[in-house]
Automatic annotation (TrEMBL):
Residues 53-141 form the Methyltransferase type domain. This is Methyltransferase domain-containing protein. The keyword Transferase applies. The keyword Repressor does not apply.
Amino acid sequence: MRRSYDDLVHEASTVSVDGWDFSWLDGRATEERPSWGYSRLLAGRMAAARAALDLQTGGGEVLAGVPALPPLAVATESWPPNLRLAASRLRPRGARVVAAADDGPRLPFADGRFDLVTSRHPVHTQWAEIARVLRPGGSFFSQQVGPRTAGELAEWFLGPYDGWTREPARAREEAEAAGLEVVDLRSERPRMEFGDIGAVVYFLRKVIWIVPGFSPERYADRLRALHDRIEAEGPFVAHSARFLIEARNP
């Protein structure tokens, strides 16, 4: 039996969106994963590290999934609800969790403290600070959100949309300007599908930069129209953008 528009929107509007865990969408929305397998590659680098820093860790979901953490493992996060989630996941693994702004002028760590710095989907990449806290020969390893992620979804609500201008080539330029040597850079556009309007509402509440200022009340007309389209035609298809970058401190 199909659920009503009001039921789907109410459910998705009231469920918690804390953390960076998207399991609530299981069976309701899908997103292909990039072919390089970030979690697998991250696990290998963590196993070889002595001191690692994970920036903007969210709720600690990705780092907590690493089989073996280095002797010194530290994670930063800026949002208080995520800080609590990250601490509950990572402290039992022996990792420290530190409050730090995503775009602050300085990370709260000494120069050359880490041989590995990582970040999955950072809001802002502090290239100069990353270079400062890396030891000579240390590496920054990150999967980032590229341009026009979920652009089709944004355009449904906002009209013509330029999307984020976070281009892989710009990331290379900024890394090199900070004195780092880029040793790997690749990008892909995985497919996304939204199977019901509740999945759309939840996604836009959680990934707040796709439709800034989103609320079901503000965009009720467009949500209703999208619900009708999904009911008539099947899942709404969009595409994410991801790029992998690895840069070394010479």
